[in-house]
Amino acid sequence: MAQNILVLPGDGIGQEVMTEVRRVVDWFGENRGLEVNISEDKVGGAAYEAYGAPITDAIMDKAFAADCVLFGAVGGPQYDMLDFSLRPERGLLRLRKDLELFANLRPAICFDALAEASSLKKELVAGLDIMIVRELTGGVYFGEPRGISDLPDGQRRGINTQVYDTEEIRRVARVAFDLAGKRGNRVHSSEKNNVMESGILWKEEVQWVHDNEFPDVQLDHILADNCGMQLVRAPKQFDVIVTDNLFGDMLSDVAAMLTGSLGMLPSASLGARDEATGKSHALYEPVHGSAPDIAGQNKANPLACILSFAMALRYSLDRGGDADLLEAAVDRVLGAGTRTGDIMSEGSTLVSCTSMGDAVLTELNKTISG
Ligand code: NAD
User: Fold this and answer.
1) If you measure from the C-alpha of residue 289 to the centroid of ligand 1, how many angstroms do you get, rounded to a whole number?
2) CA distance 285 to 101
3) Å from CA of 191 to ligand 1 middle
4) What is the DSSP secondary structure assignment for residue 85, as one 8-state letter?
5) How far apart are CA 17 and CA 9, in angstroms?
6) Residue 356: CATH number of its domain
7) Nearest CA to ligand 1 atom 23
8) Is residue 292 pLDDT above 80, yes or no?
9) Which residues are catalytic?
10) Any atom of ligand 1 within 6 Å of the Cβ of 75
11) Which of 231-245, 262-276, 289-303 has the lowest mean pLDDT?
């Protein structure tokens, strides 16, 4: 039976990179028997301009009905003056919150051909394969009270609240341990238990899940600041890192630079598995934003978004073999020296966003022509 995909390209380069993903999806339909019904709509600034809100109830209904959502990027300086509730990012936050996408998977894989592009020495990053599991629907980005208030002495006060409950921590820890069991069998749990009570709880609950449910996986606890330092000192010591929303936001961006470029980093956000159907809500998106500095110039690297679709094939569409095929095609494209500007190096061939899409399709075509 055909599966339903909701495509939300969003703003800026989100539109450009998603155009290339659509071509890849079509290729799998034409050549590998992938049956999908695709519905495309607006989100972020594009949705604000069309509908007056960064996401609408109708689009949320489509997202609930879909097997997965493919998301581009949102935002841009033209929306900076909007009220907070209308900002493009609110569209993404609502999707994450309402679909209860509590586990954000961010692989940081260094393709061999790109090891030179990392800001670290080649030997530190070649062969790197880390999975960062970030809690996505709780913590300081959502905690109450929040806001900016006026104080009697004329100052203003900004408040956000870091808050986690037992089950919020346990469910994301389970995702991390489960993934680790299929990879290197090691989890680092990262928080700040030395200065934050929520960090103490985080550490205790992750330990509980380990001791009671995954005793065979190696677990280490690491303070978030040390984790950032170790990521740039010796990143290959990590297999899976599980951490909260705020620290995960930062640590995954640190890991991003290990792999050479933001334009290479995919992500998946998963919800709880429905026991009856075996399915979970899921959203796949590149880690990068809408890149206003290069938007509309056909310069964006579409590989992060294409690799996000590979994750969708693996985690939502039950097509792990096709995911492997797509990732291998990307690997060969890079190995041949095809580069967008963000990953360009001497001796390589500089290509546009569209040509990078062409190159991936050419490699995919080789797999069927023998
Ligand atoms: P950004 O990720 O958009 O860009 C950072 C830098 O990386 C820019 O120089 C950009 O040109 C480059 N870059 C990013 N993706 C690239 C790609 N695929 N190919 C080539 N180069 C790439 O981050 P930013 O500049 O901080 O934010 C721009 C806008 O995007 C802001 O409005 C921000 O709020 C929004 N944003 C959205 C998301 C999201 O939708 N998930 C994430 C981050 C930022």
Assistant:
1) 3
2) 13
3) 26
4) G
5) 8
6) 3.40.718.10
7) 289
8) yes
9) 141, 192, 225, 249, 253
10) yes
11) 262-276
Helix (H) or strand (E) holding 10: strand 3-10
Atom of ligand 1 nearest to the CA of 10: 40
Mutate to test the pocket of ligand 1, among 80, 119, 288 (most ligand atoms within 8 A of CB): 288
Looking at the fold, whether 47 and 146 belong to one and the same domain comes out as no
| pLDDT at position 175 over 80 | yes
Indicate which residue's Cα is closest to atom 44 of ligand 1: 289
Reduced to 3 states (helix: H, G, I; strand: E, B; else coil), residue 71 is strand
Contact 252, 132 (CB under 8 A): yes
Residue 293 CB neighbour total at 10 angstroms: 10
**Bigger pLDDT: 318 or 16?**
16
Q: Is 256 in the pocket of ligand 1 (CB under 6 A)?
A: no
Q: Is the pLDDT of residue 276 over 90?
A: no
Handedness of CA 289, 269, 107, 20 (dihedral sign): negative
Q: What is the pLDDT of residues 236-263, one digit of tens each?
A: 999 999 999 999 999 988 887 787 778 8
Task: Assess whether the C-beta atom of 263 lies below 6 angstroms from ligand 1.
Answer: yes
Q: Considering its fold, how many domains does the chain have in total?
A: 2
Q: Is 61 exposed, middle or buried (0-12, 13-18, 19+ CB in 10 A)?
A: exposed
Q: Provide mean pLDDT across the span 282-294.
A: 96
Residue carrying structure tokens 């330990």: 207
Phi-psi sector, 249: left (phi>0), alpha (psi -120 to 50), beta: alpha
pLDDT for 1 beyond 90: no
Cα of first residue to Cα of last residue in the chain, in angstroms, is 28
- Shared domain for 276 and 237, answered yes or no, is no
> Would you say residue 189 lies in a domain?
yes
Residue 13 C-alpha to ligand 1 middle, in angstroms? 8
Does the pLDDT of residue 356 top 90, yes or no? yes
Residue listed under structure tokens 């539109």: 15
Domain range for residue 133? 106-261
Helix axes 13-32, 320-335, angle to 10 degrees: 120
